[in-house]
Every structure is written in C-alpha cells, then in structure tokens.
Design a protein that fits this description.
The chain has 221 residues and is of the alpha+beta class. The chain has four helices and ten strands; from the N terminus they run αββββββαββααββ. The strands form two sheets. Strands 1, 2, 3, 6, 7, 8, 9 and 10 form an eight-stranded mixed beta sheet that branches. A two-stranded antiparallel ribbon has the order 4-5. The longest helix has 24 residues.
C-alpha cells in the first residue's frame, strides 16, 4: 500500500486488529485501500442475477516529486523523486474473496453459473505531481479485468434462451465500447483479447481453460 495508506493504518481510523472503525469510514478518501469493486445486478423480475468483479492485475502509482514526512520537526525523505508509491496485486487480492462469494451464492440458491465472461481493458498507472495533481498513463502490462458471472433462473427453455441472448448482447456491447475508446488506442504494450467467453451453458460448458478466472467448484454441489 502507499505511504499515506500505511500512515492511516496506524492512526485512529483503525482498531488494534487493523479493522477500520465504522464512524471513521466516511473520512477516508475513496481511493484509499481500494483494490477493486464487486457489483450485483438483479433484472428481469429477478430471473437474471449478475455478480461482477472489476480490478487491475496491479495497481501502480509513482511520486514524481518524491515524498517527505515530518517527524519531530525534521523532514524525512520516504520516497525519492520518481519512486513507486503503490504497487498492489489487485487481482490476487480480490480473487479469493470473489470466488468464495460466488461459491456461497451457488450453494445457497442451488444453482450454477449460466455464463462467465471476462472483459480486458488497458489498466492505468498514476503519476502524482505536486499537490496531489495526477496524470494517467494506460498500459496492457497491468490490464483491468472485468469478470462477470451470470445466473439465469428461468425454467422455461424459450425464456431462458431469450434471457441468455440479452445477457450476451449486453456483454458484447460493453466490450465494443472499450474497443472504440480512446484509452484502448493510446495504451502501451500488446493488446489482449478484449472479450473472452469462459463458460456458456448453451454451448456445453467451458469455452477455454482460463483457470485463473474461474473456480470449477462453482459447478459442484
């Protein structure tokens, strides 16, 4: 984590176990301790449920002017100019929790995922200038991953097919928007496949061996 995050961790906003105090949460900046997001979507009269994880392979930030902290009236250089301030393995930190969350969902509702897709986009690197002013660079070296796990509860075959088609169109539309975006064009490094289908119940199951982005226990009761 960044120097500021480490300092905050030792402050009054956290208890002795490292857990943030509820009353102090609103005082923390949204970027502090951020490693990714998990979203839940419920649509079509609750017959389509989606759980989405979005994070980067790594979260990288540099302090272009370095960083100094004051202790007992003495300025201490804790980061040299241009030194890396934040270097977090986003996917590695998010995946265990997300995988268990989906597995628990499958167990509680006695259902398996109907679709699993992953959308890849260029990740961002932050360069902090003076007074927290920042510039961004985009790269395929640390891509943003958006993993979508969808469940269809419809029992009627025709309705199920219709809902799956709607989901696929929505996912493809999101991927096409990334391909057309300016970030995609300016990102450094070798582009990844923007959209990968990992599992499709209509096509007989697993579409590829992307073991890092799925847990086969999701399909075990």
């Amino acid at each position: 984590f960044s120097i500021f995050e480490q300092v905050l961790r030792l402050g009054d906003a956290f208890d002795h176990t490292g857990t943030p105090k509820y009353a102090e949460l609103e005082k923390l900046h949204p970027s502090h301790f951020f490693i990714g997001s998990i979203e839940f979507f419920f649509a079509s009269s609750d017959k389509v449920w989606r759980i989405i994880l979005e994070t980067q392979d790594r979260w990288i930030a540099y302090r272009m002017k370095g960083l100094k902290l004051s202790k007992d009236g003495v300025q201490l250089e804790v980061l040299a100019p241009g030194e890396k301030d934040r270097n977090l393995p986003g996917w590695e930190l998010c995946w265990p929790f997300f995988s268990k969350l989906v597995k628990a969902f499958c167990h509680v509702y006695q259902i398996h995922p109907s679709l699993v897709y992953i959308t890849n986009a260029p990740g961002k690197i932050i360069y902090y200038e003076e007074e927290e002013r920042e510039t961004l660079d985009y790269t395929w070296d640390y891509p943003t991953r958006r993993l979508e796990v969808a469940f269809v509860f419809a029992e009627d075959p025709a309705e199920r097919t219709s809902l799956l088609r709607m989901l696929k169109e929505r996912i493809r539309s999101k991927a096409n928007a990334i391909r057309r975006g300016e970030i995609f064009k300016i990102a450094k490094g070798e582009p990844l496949p923007t959209l990968q289908k990992l599992y499709d119940v209509e096509k007989g199951g697993f579409a590829c061996r992307a073991v890092n982005y799925m847990d086969k226990n999701w399909w075990v009761r």
